[in-house]
Amino acid sequence: MIVKYNRRQQGFQALELEGLKTKLRNEVDTRRQELIQLSLRIHDHPELSFQEKRASSWLIDFLGSNGFRVTANVASLATAFQATYGQGSPRIALLAEYDALPQIGHGCGHNIIAASAVGAGVASRLAVDQLGGTIVVLGTPGEEVFGGKIDMVQAGIFKEIDVAMMVHPNTRDTVSTPMLACTSLDVEFIGEPAHAAAQPDKGINALEALVLAFSSINSLRQHIKGEARIHGIITDGGQAPNIVPAHSAGKFLIRASDGAYLDELKEKVLNCFRGASLATGAKLEYNWGEKSYSPMKNNMTLADLFSENLQSLGRKVEPFDPRFGFGSSDMGNVSQVVPSIHPTVAIAGPGVIIHTPEFAQAAASEAGHKGLLDAAKAMAMTVVDILDKRETLDKIKREFYIRHD
Fold it and tell me: Does a structural domain hold residue 7?
């Protein structure tokens, strides 16, 4: 006899709870080949940010065929979606990313993020059927470049969400990795062309202005906080070596541990370009990115639940080690409005660097498949913990609002 859970009760007994978690793990294992094939399909057809038409359609089809009510084009994003199973609260969101990197493909392993989210969602139906509540799988495009989750936050997609989770592949198993606030800067220098040999004195070298700004940024780096980052590329350096470049352009990212220091750092970086403009006579034009990634506010109550579940699968959760570096994600913006976690699962050894062809290979390897399945299981089991007792969600939210204030 299956007993429908009443949220006024005290939750399942320990054996009943573990029995339900076992069912969810078994459900993921039953769907092993489906999930791996979905992951490989996305991996073999990489699509750049906001162009993930095939990936989003495959994920939508998978969820729709498994009883989810799916809405496409949410937040006015063509490749975003919302898939819902169950009704009422709590509403637990599992987030899928599926955009790839230029030339490298899935060197960030977003195919695993996508497949693990839908795998956890489908498995979690068993928990919803017994305990109530709602599972919401959100397709969140454009994480690598455009921050699709920021648009979704601004559109109110997370207003009725109680908890949000996603799992990122990496080289270590962690549950509370810090992430940096991040913003972008596009710059241009406008100079004057001239023959580089016959009359170089008649020209204003826009490329020299950009190179000088790069040198200034390199000098600035030794005087910024250790976790802050400044990096960029030259996207236009001139047309021919015998013409004084009349135009140069670059794209830069500035990262910091919090918004206040990011604002301070933005002004210092901009002064590097202003100084280069004054020194060379090239006119500076610049645009800050319309959207900034917020730092990650890890909910440690939620992270502890996930950690226990992940370790039950035989993985050893490691504490954050700054030697392995910092990154940024638009999941940080989600964590500012709803209790969230962004743990990682190891799919390669520590010698493999993320955002490389080697990591892209790992994302389609047996280790990558295991990471996908373990991530799906750990998220699904954490869903059970949240649905089981009302006081668990209360504790998660209490931490969020205390730290939010």
Answer: no
Per the structure block, which two tokens stand in for 109? 């392993």
Residues of the chain by 3-state class (helix, strand, coil), percent to 5: 45, 20, 35
pTM of this prediction? 0.89
**Which residue has tokens 């009422």?**
88
Model confidence pLDDT, tens digit, residues 302-357:
999 999 999 999 999 998 776 666 789 999 999 999 999 999 999 999 999 999 99
Give the C-alpha distances (Å, rounded to integers) separating 268 from 185, 212, 309, 328.
13, 15, 44, 20
Using alpha carbons, list the distances in angstroms from residue 386 to 28, 74, 163, 295: 19, 26, 9, 25
- Number of domains the chain contains: 2
d(CA 198, CA 148): 50
H or E element: which one contains 19?
A: helix 14-30
Confidence of residue 5 (pLDDT cuts 50, 70, 90): very low
**What 3-state DSSP class applies to 181?**
strand
Question: Where does a domain end: 288, 322, 347?
Answer: 288
Peptide bond into 90 cis (omega under 30): yes
- Does some domain include residue 1? no
Domain that holds residue 398: 14-179+295-404
Express as a percent the part of the chain with pLDDT over 70: 96
Q: What is the pLDDT of residues 55-76, one digit of tens each?
A: 999 999 999 999 999 999 999 9
Domain check: are 158 and 70 in the same one? Answer: yes
Residue 8 lies in a domain: no
Here the CATH number for the domain that contains residue 116 is 3.40.630.10
Q: Is the dihedral of CA 119, 124, 129, 135 positive or negative?
A: negative
Contact 269, 229 (CB under 8 A): no
